[in-house]
Amino acid sequence: MAEPKTKYDRQLRIWGEQGQAALEKASICLLNCGPTGSETLKNLVLGGIGSITVVDGFKVENGDLGNNFMVNESSLGQPKAKCVCGFLQELNDAVKARFIEENPVTLIETNPSFFSQFTLVIATQLVEDSMVKLDRICRDANVMLIFARSYGLSGFVRISVKEHTVIESKPDHFLDDLRLNNPWPELKKFTENIDLDTSDPVVHKHIPYILILVKIAEEWAKNHGGRLPSSREDKKEFKELIKAKMSATDEDNYKEAIDASFKVFASPGISSDLKRILDDTRAEVESNTPDFWVMVAALKEFIANEGGGEAPLDGSIPDMTSSTELYVNLQKLYQAKAEADFLVVEERVRNILKKIGRDPYSISKTVIKSFCKNARKLTVCRYKPIEEEFNSPILPELQKYLTDEEYSVAVGFYILLRAVDRFSANYNAFPGQFDGAMDDDISRLKTTAVSLLGDLGCNGSTLTEDLINEMCRYGAAELHAVAAYIGGVASQEVIKLITRQFVPMSGTFIFNGIDHKSQLLSL
Amino acid sequence: MADLRSSSRSRDLDKLLLRPGHLVGPTFEPGAQLRDDLQEYVRILVVGAGGLGCELLKDLALSGFRNLEVIDMDRIEVSNLNRQFLFRLEDVGEPKAEVAAKRVMERVSGVNIVPHFCRIEDKELEFYSEFSIIVLGLDSIEARSYINAVACGFLEYDANDEPLEETMKPMVDGGTEGFKGHARVILPGMTPCFECTIWLFPPQVKFPLCTLAETPRTAAHCIEYAHLIKWDEVHSGKSFDPDNPDHMQWVYLEAAKRAQLFGIPGVTYSLTQGVVKNIIPAIASTNAIISAACALETLKIASGCSKTLSNYLTYNGLEGLHTKVTEFVRDKDCLVCGPGIFMELETSITLKLFIDQLEEHPKLLMSGASVTVRGKNLYMAAPPLLEEMTRSNLAIPLFELMDKSPTGIVHVTGTAGKGDKRQSCLRKLRVAFKANGITDTDMAGGA
Lengths: 523, 447
Ligand SMILES: [Zn+2]
Description:
Chain A: Belongs to the ubiquitin-activating E1 family. ULA1 subfamily. With about 525 residues, chain A is an alpha/beta fold.
């Protein structure tokens, strides 16, 4: 067996050992192992997911060899679940792989408790009726669920989880928390020993911009009745003030200060996203409130009290031109403040836990620390039951998509992907699945789509003939490249859900394989 | 079910290739013939057998193509196994191209994949000209740039500077980093080539040496100090090998010492590797998404079975899921996909003099050039054996070496650019020979 640290090196750099541990603990169930399902699992098995259970009731036939890499000639006539499972096991011997030869639809109907053993269920190529039933089962059992489907050059991915909370959302670009416009006493004190007018040129060009900006902001406020720059003229004047302190044109630290001056102008306090989380009713703690929300309650108290309107400091500073000594000392200063904030939040978390009758130490220091460090980036995702979306989608949104050029193909596919299921319920086959009845199928699918639109409250809306035609042409084909794309998307979302890092997608992702103008629909 | 199709291997693909549609490419001619032609006549080259390459070979083999070739100079490493699904632990040390080709052929019968275990520069231009479409699964800008220049080099223009479609060599390019990736379609002469939009790939920011030497602040500064400065000081003459674990360990320990001296936190062995080797994080799912998009576009270009991506797709799964299609525009003056740098020459100019002119030409500044015309090497600056074989051409007039044709395309490879930005590159020249002694009338008119 390979050293996991080396084998997983390239992904450990993304989600770290904690993320990896979460993957290795997870137990995944796959329903239907055509190419869409097989490819989804393949990406997870490679990454070292804990265990997989492949459920499929079909035997391998010739057509499967043309679109599924996990089966080959020797698999013909054998249970598909067994063959796919066997190949996946070859990819990573650290994964526990098993299969069940049974039709997922039957399993959903007859054995709902089967699903409660899993961390997450990946349901591929299911029709609407089964999706709705499975969604109810998984919600009741608190099992995460993701739907994926490939259909010709179209397809979708949809997460269905009641609530998913993320501490480590790891956004790409996020304004760092330097408190330049609101320095705490120790930072203020630290800047007092800095002389921007020093005559030593080496010292002058190695003052980090944090200190330059705190000092100049202080000076500016002193001359402006205590307020900070807000208008355009103010900001210009402020930048001029920085420029005036420059003693040579090659001083990178002053250039950086000018570039970072917007950090002084930013309004203090918390973002509206964070405010919404603090105001969520889930933050009104009860005895069974999840840890995340207990910490949110503590955070809310902190912000209202010790924080003075600010979240705990995250304690990191970006690299900037500076002498080593000043930079390292500054780093220590920020870390000390972050540690102090954390200790206050920790105390509040313990008190809340005590109050609701739980073990005050049931949430670890590490978790609370990470929560504090990421307090400004907390994310909460909620997904409505699939049945609700199917029966009563958000009408204004749907109507907007139907009339918006950018969305026309995506929403067309959305409606048609649902219409083909109604079609198959009526005619025992998907439109265009067999040659010969194409013209009939096209007009039947059109009628089905129109009546579906009517049921959704969009009377009078139509889809283009071209797209209806296209859907019949697909004839429910599961093309390998499309399946690999959809499976890739599904597996990426699964990783985000299981590691509880990064932000999973919201809404329904509609794949548009015609020109790649895929869209997320929030219905 | 008594449907004959259900027993056909191309059950699913046939729906797309045999049936007419409205949202398709202009050249689409559905039918069994199309499916058979894809299998028989279309030849695809996959450049790179890594994270994208493995996926691409599988995707293309299952998208109706049977003649595939793959080129890659690397050998399999343990850290590949989290995503390069065609490789097993026992394959470590083997050439990627060979193992990848073997594995796909084992599973998909009827597909033939020819592996090439070598550098992309080792192949003659002619090698690349054989393919219908070139698909790139690379992680280096230099390699992309090279293949792009090769493929664009085949493009010919008519007298009105309009590209000749039959000389167009389409490329499909993919790239990933962590949860993000891109896929693009390059139709040289029609859509922007890699060089037209080179600004999409900004050069990596390097730390100033004075920061490393005098004011280190981060763990990365300490690592780069050990790697770039201290190593040479201590190991005079012995060059650093990033694949040698002893070397890496030495750099790590030196970096750790320096970090301790300055009170800088965060130096770890893993970070040392990351910084020194410039490791790009990579995961299976993103590679799968991007490769699938590339394979699908390849199928569309080859068959016309749907519209093509126009022309750049980005995927970002970091915060939610964002996909975006951007239609970039061509740089009409692009040195690579444009009509080429026009040079008017005397018929008497020797190959040697021509090569000297390349050095002075303001748009080229190319030294040590090798010269190729229609796949034939007129002069090769390296390796020595080829140099010796082609040296005698230097004294012969270029006009004669080009079979006395009045105009033609010449490919030159050499080192170009100024100062420390010098790099090896390939350029296309459109040469025209002055009719004996008489200046071209157009030129005279413009003077
Ligand atoms: Zn170009």
